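On clarity, I found the account of how folds are encoded harder to follow than it need be. An entry of this sort, consisting of the sequence and the corresponding backbone structure tokens, reads as follows:
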Amino acid sequence: MLAALTLALSASSVWAFDLPELMGLLAQRKSGDATFTEQRFVRGLEGPLDASGVLSFTAPDRLLRRTLSPRPETMSVEGNTLTLSRGGRTRTMALDSMPELLGMVEAMRGTLSGNAQSLQRYFRSSLSGSSNDWALELQPIDERLAAQVRSMRLTGRGGDVLGIEMEFIGGDRSVMNITPERRAGNAPGAPARSTP
């Protein structure tokens, strides 16, 4: 009896959901679109600041965030180029000139593309849950990023990222809920089909 229990316990740890398995699920999806709602809790303000819009990702490094409400603005990142558009004005800059923003962008791109090496360049990570309900906790290891961001928490199901929570130094917090758009033939949580 004791031998069977020992074998069962050791087998369950062998099958534990781990970071390489999550990265493999995420890497299967080469692109995706989603809608988002975000609440920012800012110290000194009575209620949250609400925003909503659309997100788009194309592996390995193109990320687009288009805020539709409360006012239109677009943030586009491709490679090391960041482009911000708001109120008819556009500004382009090198992402690596802003280390704290670079780290946050790499956390998202690294997760969305399943690139653990990129992710772990800026963060210490811990994963909990299963492939059907996971949470990836990120703690900054880069000093400049750690001076701005206390932690990030990404949650999801299978190859879908469904939430991003960021806690900033000073007490501000952002909570984003993400709803992936489904392509025909994909069940929720199933990998997207890539086209040749």
